[in-house]
Structures are given as structure tokens and as C-alpha cells.
Structure prediction request, 165 residues.
Amino acid sequence: MDIAIRSVSEESGLSGEGFKPGDSVRSYLYRSEEGLIERIDVLESERDQLTLGSAVICSWGQRIKEKGLSEAEERRAALQSADEVFLSLFEEDPEGEEIEESVLKARERLKFFLALQLERKRVLKPLGGRRFRHMPTKRELKVPELEITPELIVEFQEEISLMRG
Prediction:
């Protein structure tokens, strides 16, 4: 199962201001009150105005590029976005905030399923014992072991349905 992570929005989810080439944007995956994983993109300058609290699963930054990508470039950008989300899941939590149990579980599931996808795309090299080497950075990462059950897949698909845009 590939996890389709939509590309950056065309405007800030906070102010509605349109993104322009060269803008620095911060993207967040967070757990909504309904329990779904949602994504919001905001200008880096608006970052402090966003109040998602302990619902944040991960975040990453990017710079807006010119439009007009070919199909191959779009596929490459989608893989890069999945890779950025995966790496951001291993970053330290901001300001030592306590994280909700549901957010921690969502992080673990995302790590697990993105690792499967990135291993298949040869971005991750298995080292054994659920350890992987991230080939672009040579960083070693440990991914949680989850039992793949029909219930886990259904729950995860429902949880990430909004990430696809």
C-alpha cells in the first residue's frame, strides 16, 4: 500500500494567503478531533499563530517551487514528500510537550507503513531487527514492529484518508 501524501496546498490553511515561488512553508500532520490525520500548510512566518497543540504528529518545511512539473517530476516530488514526512517522525518533540496517546500511535503506524513504502522504493535499506539505513542521509533508524492485520489496515486507511487531498 502506497501512502499518498498530497503536495503542498496552493494557499495557507491559516490566512488563506496564496503561496508564491520562493515562499517558505511549514506543513503539519495532526490528529483532528474526529480522530483522522489531517494536513495543514502555512507560511513559515505564520507558524507561531497556529495552535494545534499536542495533536501534531509531525511537521516539515519546504520552499515553494515554480509550477509545470512533468509526470516523472511529480512522482519524484511525491516520493520526496513521503520521505520528508518519514524523517520528520523521528525528530524530537517541540518544547517537551506531552503527546496524546492517539498521536503517538498514529506516529508509530506512519513510521511503519512509510518504512514499507520507502524500503520498496530503495530509499531505506534493511539492516535487520526493524533497523533501516536511510540511503540519502546514511542515518540509521529503528521502525516499530506492528502486526499487519486487516483491522490495522482498515483503521490506518480511514485515518489517512484526508492526507490524499
Remarks:
- DSSP finds three helices and six strands in the chain.
